[in-house]
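hi!! sorry for the late reply, been swamped w classes. u asked for the two structures so here they r. pasted raw, havent cleaned anything up. first the sequence of the first protein and right below it the tokens
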Amino acid sequence: MAKQLTNHFGSTVPDRAEFSHFTVSERRASGVRQIDLMLAVQGRLRRLGLSKRTETAYTGWIVRFLRAFPGRHPIRLGKGEVEAFLTALASRDRVAAATQNQALAALLFLFREVLGQQLPWMEGIKRAKRPARLPEVLSREEVLSVLSRMKGVDRLVASLLYGSGLRLLEGLRIRNRDVDLIRCELIVRGGKGSKERRTMIPRGLADALAAQRDVSFRLHQEDLDCGFGEVWLPDVLARKYRSASREPGWQYLFPARKRSVDPRGSKVFRHHWSESSVQRAVKQAVFQSGIIKPATCHTFRHSFATHLLESGYDIRTVQELLGHSDVSTTQIYTHVLNRGASAVRNPLDASSPMAR
């Protein structure tokens, strides 16, 4: 496998060895230019303020696209090559529809944002149709059973996922300043689509969250005493409030156990609690509870929405709490309510003597 470089954005770019099978003239015309192109892609992603995950995904797909057509600069590629690449993903690699659409989004970004081409044929490429699936939902008893088998920070994070309807990263990225324990409210920043919203905090978690905030403050003070104490901030905030990264309010409510080097630079920060830690704890607790549903961290968010609708809250309120832009996204939870198929009396039960 060809070597890969890691640039100062923390993402991989193709090494010149990737193009070693080219002639000297081809390497000059293609290899070096493609490396420069990838740096331009990453630079554009950064200027637009897209997330690190989006940057990693897009650069990965663009590199794969370039490898599929070696020796050819993307400016010489067109609809046929893009469709052939996406077709190969579907037929040969058998990737999911969502993955195909992510690859297409990355190529759209390459042609539009980096190469500056407004190509009408790109609009004509059909996106893969994602299969419609109902969300997996736990009952209230199942939620409590899972949470009771967890402990520490993992349990507190999982409790917030259910009690506040959060996505996992939204819970882990909570800053101390965004928690209002008096009003039991939480501001979710940098959610899906870079939207902000306000949601509720279970009053039963207030004391545990206050204790967790004290832990965050203590770790921050220890970092300051050791000459560290900065936390990552979005570029706009970092430029506007230059001292904010060292303030207690901007520190993560759930800080990581250890400091680490920022993947986009060389600064040493204390990141937030590990995703994998919570995911492993939830998986183990689900297994110990004897639940055979494919429940994950995101299942808590699905259960939050469904249980609110079951309790009679209107769908617009649930939409706002979840941060959905369109109410049609929230409406999927109405299909899993107990008022649906389970509320209809089965005709066999109605006619059977045993049902009387």
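now the second protein. again sequence first, tokens right under
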Amino acid sequence: MPITVAALRETVAGERRVAITPEMAKKLGGKGLRVLLERGAGASAGFPDELYANTDFAAAGEVLAQADLLACVLPPADAVFAQLREGVVVVGQLRPYGAPARIAALAARRLTAFALELLPRTTRAQAMDVLSSQAAVAGYRAMLIAAEACPKFFPMLTTAAGTIRPSKVLVIGAGVAGLQAIATARRLGAQTEGYDVRPETREQVESLGAKFLDLGVSAAGSGGYARELSAEERAAQQQALAEHLKAFDVVVSTAAVPGRPAPKILSAAMVAGMKPGALIVDLAAESGGNCELTRPGERVEQGGVSILGPLNLPAGAPLHASEMYARNVVNFAELLLKDGALQPDFDDELVAKSCLVRAGEVLFRG
């Protein structure tokens, strides 16, 4: 019997992505695998069932009963794992940090689970790096939200009523999300600057046509992330940043590290010093926010400054986000297959480091 790769309709509120798209279903079928989806799994992402060629559909319970590999975008309810057969492989963004009950539910059923957020940030892992692919979507959408919420035009306009100067936009954090936000702000015509404590990002920011904001603080770290600033460095950073913030109309902050609270970069005092009508879009809201005043999922008004804390931005562009995510999943799944069977090679760094639970044994030590 061929291996059955399965996916359910996502059930987290507001989630519209799907783990397997028609294109990836076709690719899996071409490798001799069976694809089984819950009816309507891709509908909210723009992929109705009829677009899936050579794909089987069933109710959720039947899908779980027959799955050999279950792909997900976000973790399903813990009770879902109990409906899988022992030995089934689960692949997706499993959000392992601070989720002991989820990990226990996987282990209790003797499943093998891979959390794609844990993949090493290496060149070889890029084709399956869900953090990067979904961060690109989030950065793009964050800047569109900023452009809509800003009380000013982004581009310079020359009109019969006079010339309107472009908005000044600052993007904090020059990772994947930040760089996509910078690129989007530039496309929209804003006067754009980017800031990051990692000096090596200057070239990337400037390559997008933006100015690099140098505050004189360097915190280059490992794994593509910044190290934690010392108290002296943080004080110097905040003092310099507070002065620069007074000139910006829009600030989009994107600094986050998986499994840790987002660094607090924008204090209430710094917000108070910003111009009336200024806007902050805090992309790190889900992990506590880069701004002290951020409330996840809400809009806060403070002294004439608006602070937005949007959540799950990739779900707002579900078609392209799903296409990228599904491609990541399938590229990773190929590491788990050998001679038509599920045989993960745990000598492979990508397999070993992303494994949460192996046949019921908890490997994650977060």
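hope this helps!! also noticed smth abt the second:
The chain has eleven helices and 19 strands.
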